[in-house]
Design goal:
Rossmann fold; four-stranded antiparallel beta sheet; 173 residues; alpha/beta; 6 helices; five-stranded parallel beta sheet; elongated
Length: 173
């Protein structure tokens, strides 16, 4: 599970602690645009926690563009701006919480989203599951699209024989 956190540096420790779910990789950026530039398609976060203080229309456009580009992405927006609720109503994958939400509220929301992310996408065939990233152990993920294992955020490309052996073993587990 990869989580992106968008917030000022001073607020990062509080949100990081709330987002600390076993086996997650966490990226930090100070704006939606900076987060969007910091990852490639293979390393996109499944969940983004966005502390949206003093947000602007461009920030929302970037978030909506990310939601469009990554169908499994979910966004938790922490803000007190009343217009945020109207904007997020158009996009069901954006959840708006008050900016003063305590760590437990954020943690419960992220846990629910994590469970939803673990479910297969609607309409996906069983054979599609071999092409999606698979958590093997806390901090260890096999990503067939990258042909790599990811150990606590470090990508380890798998040579042909090792890749085929891992796929063989996973089919029989």
């Amino acid at each position: 599970m990869r989580i992106g956190i968008i917030c000022p540096a001073a607020e990062y420790p509080r949100l990081y602690q709330a987002a600390a779910i076993g086996g997650t990789g966490v990226m930090h950026a100070d704006s939606p645009d900076a987060l969007a530039r910091s990852f490639g398609a293979a390393m996109a976060p499944e969940i983004v926690v966005w502390s949206a203080h003093n947000w602007n229309g461009n920030d929302w456009r970037v978030i909506l563009r990310l939601c469009g580009a990554y169908p499994r992405l979910r966004v938790v927006c922490l803000t007190d701006e009343p217009s945020a609720a109207g904007t997020s109503a158009r996009e069901e994958r954006i959840i708006v919480l008050p900016s003063a939400a305590d760590g437990e509220s954020i943690r419960r929301t992220l846990a629910a989203l994590t469970e939803c992310s673990a479910l297969p996408a609607a309409g996906s065939a069983p054979e599609d599951s071999w092409e999606r990233p698979l958590a093997l152990a806390p901090g260890l993920v096999f990503d067939p699209a990258l042909r790599s294992g990811i150990n606590n955020g470090v990508v380890h490309p798998l040579p042909g024989k090792e890749l085929e052996l891992l796929r063989f073993l996973l089919r029989r587990r």
